Every structure is written in C-alpha cells, then in structure tokens.
Amino acid sequence: MEPITTSNQLLLLEAIDRVRNDVDAPRLPLEELTETTFTLVAEHMSLTQIIEAAEGLIELASHPTRPKQAPPMPIDELQALLEKVIDLRDWQELEEDDDRSDIQKLIDNSTDADAVLVRDPSGTPELQEIGILELLQRYPCRGSEARWSPDDAIAFLETKTRWLDAALESWDADGEAIDADSHLIEAKAVVLVVPEQRGQALRTELHDVLIPVDS
Predict the structure, then answer these.
(1) Is the pLDDT of residue 83 over 70?
(2) 195: closest CA among 157, 148, 152?
(3) Nearest CA to 125 among 147, 92, 76?
(4) Is the pTM value of this prediction over 0.70?
(5) Is residue 167 in some structural domain?
(6) What does the alpha-carbon distance between residue 111 and residue 185 come to, in Å, rounded to a whole number?
C-alpha cells in the first residue's frame, strides 16, 4: 500500500507548486526559488519538520506502490530545499554547542569569511555567529517585518568584507605582527546589533580586537 501523504508533506508540495507558478519562476535560478519556498513553509514548520517532509516525499517518489499516473514529484526542488534546511539545522546545532566567550567570538569572526556575528537580546546566547544565508532569513530586509533595508544589508556585508580583508592582509604581511612581542595584530570585528525594542532599525557595531599570528 502506498504511504499516506502527511499534512506537512502536502504543505510543502503546495508551497513548491505556488513558487513554480509564479510568473517570474522560469527566469529565476533554483537557489532563489528554494529560498522563496523555504520562506513560505518556515512560517508553519520547524526545520526538523521540513527535513522529515522533504525526505518522505523523495522516498515516496520511488515507492513501488506509487501509481504510475500520479503527478511527478518535484525532486529537484525537494532536494535543493532539503540541502538548504540541513545546512541551517547544522548551523543551529553549532550555535547551541558554542561555549566560546564573547571576546573569543569577536576575535575568531574577524578573520572568518563564511559567518557573521549578531547580537540579539532575544537569542541564546545573545551573541551568535551565523551563516550569511541564515542572517538574511532571520532578519529579512523586505516585507512588513523588516527592520533594515536591502541597502542596509549590503552595507553591513560590505563593512564585514572590508575589515575582513584588512585583517587578512595584515595577518599575511610578511608573517609579522604589529606587536612583535605578543604576536598580535589589530583588527575589527563587525557585529549586527538587534535593538531590544521591536521596530527599531538594526545597526552595525565595530569592536577592536587583537588576533594572534601563527608562529
């Protein structure tokens, strides 16, 4: 007997179908379509529920009892969504296991190109290191709930990149630190700050840090 399609699986299929039927869909890359699908389902399902629903549908597509006349399963969209959500879940697990001090997070992130720092009083811990993709999903820059604009988001990421490049250039310059005795280099850690009061705009803070130079 064919497995029963769950309500979460139906919700996921409806979201994919809705995105597919958008007038701009044929011109958009799969990555952007996946992001839109995730935004639709994330309002109703946890990351674990999305993963379970996507895996179940992919398994259902090749189930021996599935009727041949059944509508084709959107395998490409499901696999892209599954990969995206698993990555997000892995980031969350890393955050939960992160027992570094705030100072160490600032130091480490000043030379990390793949993650950004966010200080959000509603989060645990308050200062978190997250991926750039997750940043834009946690703190959207469009829509009624947006607390910053696309230009603000770009400016934040450009600031992060500028100080990252400066730190790496200093780090690589002849392998010498500014302070030869302590083997430390001056750098800046860039942090996105979420005000505690709802509706207030997000802001960017710079923190002076000293990063060690490899011997």
Answers:
(1) yes
(2) 148
(3) 92
(4) no
(5) yes
(6) 11
